[in-house]
Write a structure and sequence with these properties.
Elements (H helix, E strand, L loop, with lengths): L2 E4 L2 E5 L5 E5 L11 H11 L6 E2 L3 E6 L10 E3 L7 E5 L3 E5 L7 H12 L8 E9 L3 E10 L5 E2 H13 L7 H16 L10 H8 L2 H8 L2 H8 L2 H9 L8 E2 L10 E4 L2 E4 L10 H4 L3 E2 H23 L4 H28 L11 H18 L5 H11 L21
Antiparallel strand pairs: 1-2, 1-4, 2-3, 5-9, 6-7, 7-8, 8-10, 9-10, 11-13, 12-15, 13-14
Helix pairs in contact: 3-10, 4-10, 4-11, 6-12, 8-12, 10-11, 10-12, 10-13, 12-13
């Protein structure tokens, strides 16, 4: 079995393409085992000579960003697809769990680093394995740690809950619009591609509703069924756009945005985990990222309702009303920032309603397959964004959406 071996462990390539991080005893590696420090040291040195591969060659790809020398390891206390470890308190290494799983991130982060974009955490480089059979793949990424930062599912919901209790209106939707436009302007290459045609976009959305209906049971399924025809019509009516296609973030939501003080950073350029690899890396128009981010603002309202433990109609109308206004502010801010960067026609807002609907349905599917406790957020957003189908309004009373208990 092929391995990349370091002093304190190895990365083992399994036959199914899974990359297993193992410590020196052959057990699953964790912070403190030393493997993360070994791999980080190789990347920072720009030299993979301290590592050995059972087949092929290893390369350390280093950017110009200066880094501290500390190598002590600290665990990252959140659930993630990959294993991430803080190294030396100022760096974080992401060890990839699937062959090819970070190639997209490595490519886009290198481009953003070269462009001097400070809307993403500092990027130090990557470890690459050139395998004689499987080809080339990024094994690990090393970036800067943002001190005292929280992700958007925490800070955004906190801001909205504070506003609901009488605090100031959150100003982060405009900040997110500017952040997204800055990253898009840097990723917009000299040779942008034609936008996917309406038929292609609709084909991608086709079947999403039926899958969501099949997977979503109980009261959430009943609420979705009551809105199915409206959603189907919206997905089928996504219009043609002339906006150019380019490399996007691909999985943009508030949870991908760190905030520390009044500064925001965008994370994780791996692409949409629900899409096949080939489709995940396909260029698309700016509206795709903006729609994903806009959909997440409605789910922030669901999270805030859970924090506040409110379920009365007036409170929910106020929270989801905030989300709709926040989406408008996001789009306006994005357009202004894109125009200021020299790209006034980057976003076609006409396609946003259909893409937002598609994304909310994908959130239901994601919850069923990977994170069942997350269903309530997308369920609440769909319930309060879309009216019931006229043919179903005279039927039995619909079960009311309520946030889960804390």
């Amino acid at each position: 079995m092929d391995e990349v071996r370091a002093v304190h462990g190895c990365l083992r390539l399994e036959p199914d393409g899974v990359l297993a991080a193992l410590d020196a005893r052959g057990l699953p590696a964790a912070a403190g085992a030393g493997l993360a420090a070994d791999l980080t040291a190789a990347v920072l040195a720009g030299d993979a000579g301290s590592l050995t591969a059972s087949a092929g060659e290893l390369h350390a790809v280093r950017t110009r960003l200066a880094a501290g020398s500390g190598l002590e390891e600290t665990a990252v206390p959140v659930d993630m697809t990959n294993l991430s470890v803080v190294v030396g308190r100022d760096k974080i290494i992401k060890l990839v769990r699937q062959w090819g799983g970070a190639d997209r991130s490595a490519r886009l982060l290198a481009r953003l680093a070269d462009a001097g974009v400070d809307a993403v955490p500092g990027y130090y480089g990557s470890l690459v394995w050139e395998h004689p059979v499987h080809g080339r793949s990024t094994l690990a990424l090393v970036s800067a740690v943002i001190p005292d930062a929280e992700d958007g599912w925490t800070w955004a919901a906190d801001d909205v809950a504070a506003w609901f209790r009488g605090g100031p209106l959150p100003d982060f939707p405009a900040a997110l619009g500017r952040l997204t436009a800055e990253v898009h302007a840097a990723l917009f290459g000299p040779d942008p591609l034609p936008a996917p045609g309406a038929a292609e976009v609709r084909a991608r959305a086709d079947g999403v509703l039926d899958v969501a209906l099949a997977l979503t049971g109980g009261d959430a399924g009943a609420r979705l069924a009551n809105r199915a025809e409206r959603l189907r019509s919206l997905l089928a009516a996504i219009p043609e756009t002339a906006a150019p296609a380019f490399d996007l973030h691909g999985d943009l939501h508030v949870g991908q945005v760190l905030r520390s003080g009044d500064k925001y950073w965008l994370l994780d350029f791996d692409g949409d985990p629900q899409l096949p690899d080939a489709e995940r890396d396909r260029p698309d128009t700016a509206a795709r990222d903006v729609a994903h981010l806009a959909a997440s603002l409605e789910m922030v309202a669901s999270v805030a309702a859970k924090r506040l433990q409110v379920a009365d109609t007036a409170s929910l109308d106020r929270l989801y009303g905030w989300a709709r206004n926040a989406q408008q502010e996001l789009v306006q801010s994005y357009r202004a920032a894109a125009a200021g960067a020299g790209f006034p026609d980057l976003l076609d807002a006409e396609v946003l309603p259909g893409l937002v609907a598609e994304q909310l349905l994908r959130e239901l599917i994601y919850a069923h397959r990977f994170l069942p406790r997350w269903q309530y957020a997308a369920d609440g957003a769909i319930t309060h964004r879309f009216e019931r189908d006229p043919s179903r309004t005279a039927q039995t009373k619909e079960p009311a959406w309520t946030p889960p208990a804390l």
